[in-house]
Amino acid sequence: MMKTKTKICGITEIGDALTAANAGADAIGLVFFDPSPRAVDVARAREIAAAVPAFVTLVGLFVNPDADYVRNILDQVPLDLLQFHGDESPEFCNQFGRRWIKAVRVATTDDVEDAFERYSLGSGLLLDAYDPTLYGGTGKSFDWTLIPQQRPLPLILAGGLNSDNVARAITAVKPWAVDVSGGVEIRKGVKDAARIKEFLNEVHRVDKTD
To answer: Domain 5-209 adopts which CATH fold?
Structure first.
């Protein structure tokens, strides 16, 4: 069976980034959205990026940014992948010369099917729980049966995942990757090393048994 890729998002400390990497995370997420309790400034992002070992993907998360803001971050932080979590158009996402993924808040199957078509130039589609006011980080899961079987892009599952449900999620959805933030925190913006390890261990366990 294909190994399920993993991303630990909302990293704000070097130690948490290293914990995730050493426990087998494939990617680290840095949030460049000031209203988020998980946001990092450029100086901290550069420190974390410098500490992350080889072959761990560095992802920058943005929510409805100005193009100049994204370019400014890219000039200063060596991001490997961009993640757009707002209402960005495909044209906006595709202008920076970097691989990118688009996050979609799922309310219906049509939301997912339409996004697969609209954001077809992306490197993946991230599915998160729908909230009318929040662009992610809700800590809530959604109805996984809304996810279609036809997936033109790699599917990244997010939304309310933690060590208690991620094995079930992988078995039910069979995503390319899983993405967690709040599910490995003590409180918003503060990661817990034990929870990071437990989450990744669960992913690796179900990969071995399936």
So the answer is: TIM Barrel (3.20.20)
**The model scores a pTM over 0.90:** yes
User: Which of 9, 16, 26, 93 is the catalytic position?
Assistant: 9
128 is catalytic: yes
* Contact of 73 with 60, CB cutoff 8 Å: yes
What pLDDT sits at residue 21?
97
Q: Name the residue among 84, 83, 13, 82 with its Cα closest to residue 52.
A: 13
Every domain of the chain and the residues it spans: 5-209
Note the pLDDT tens digit of each residue in 12-24.
999 999 999 999 9
Q: Which of 183, 157, 154, 185 is nearest to 170 (CA)?
A: 157
> Known catalytic residue: 93?
no
**For the residues 167-171, what does the mean pLDDT come to?**
95
Instruction: Give the active site residue among 16, 26, 93, 128.
Output: 128
How many Å apart are CA 97 and CA 70, to the nearest integer? 11
Q: Quick check: 144 and 169 in contact, CB under 8 A?
A: yes
* Torsion angle (degrees, nearest 10) of CA 207, 208, 209, 210: 50
